[in-house]
Specification:
single chain; 215 residues; alpha/beta; TIM Barrel; two-stranded antiparallel sheet; 10 strands; 28% helix; 19% strand; disordered C terminus
Length: 215
């Protein structure tokens, strides 16, 4: 298996973004949800130099028009739809630009999850499977048994309390092609812990090129 893609979400500080870029994050997430302690303004990601990790906006309650407007203002590459958005909503954003979030624990059985994965597959680029039954920031791992025998025909991301202490367990349990880090690499909501960030990249065989800071 190829190395997993790494997404660091809930970024609110320039210093954290710059460290993610130096470490080689594949995707960087910015949350646009006023109810989140990690909520940010479109002007913040707009200032981030493009081309050093895809910029992802996380959306919950906005309309398609609002999502597209924020994506344009913020210079985003992808929209992570973290609510109950429909197939038509995904189509309005553009399937190649959508990461669709699903919550395996919200289904009565694996068949329900499989059905939704197949239903949304034509309308998104990636899936993200998160802990809990809705929302995010639960700061705990997903029940890996719920997804070990699911057929996902897209590159997908595993989320839910991932950090240096449990990332190898997650990889061994369900071999996700992508990993989403947020609360598990923080000091407090929206404030990333540089040591924990470096630790997860190191655990995944991603090492920072020698810099003055790291020597």
């Amino acid at each position: 298996m190829n190395r997993p893609l790494i997404k660091v979400c809930g970024l609110t500080r320039r210093a954290d973004v710059e460290l993610c870029q130096r470490l080689g994050a594949d995707l960087m997430g910015f949350i646009f949800h006023p109810g989140s302690p990690r909520n940010t303004d479109p002007g913040f990601p707009a200032e981030i130099e493009p081309g050093r990790g895809l910029k992802v906006g996380v959306f919950v309650d906005q309309t398609p028009g609002e999502v597209l407007e924020i994506m344009d203002r913020a210079g985003l590459d992808l929209a992570q739809l973290h609510g109950k958005q429909s197939e038509a909503f995904c189509a309005a954003i553009g399937p190649r630009r959508v990461i669709k979030t699903l919550w395996p624990e919200s289904y009565a059985d694996a068949r329900g999850l499989q059905k939704d994965l197949e239903r949304f597959a034509p309308f998104c680029r990636h899936f993200l499977l998160d802990a809990g039954r809705s929302g995010g920031g639960h700061a705990r791992s997903i029940d890996f048994g719920l997804i070990q025998h699911i057929d996902i025909n897209k590159v997908w991301f595993l989320a839910g309390g991932l950090g240096p202490d449990n990332v190898r367990t997650a990889l061994a349990a369900c071999s996700p092609p992508g990993l989403d880090f947020n609360s598990g690499v923080e000091d407090s909501p929206g404030i990333k812990d540089p040591a924990r960030l470096r630790a997860v990249f190191k655990a995944l065989g991603r090492t920072l090129a020698a810099t003055t800071e790291e020597r």
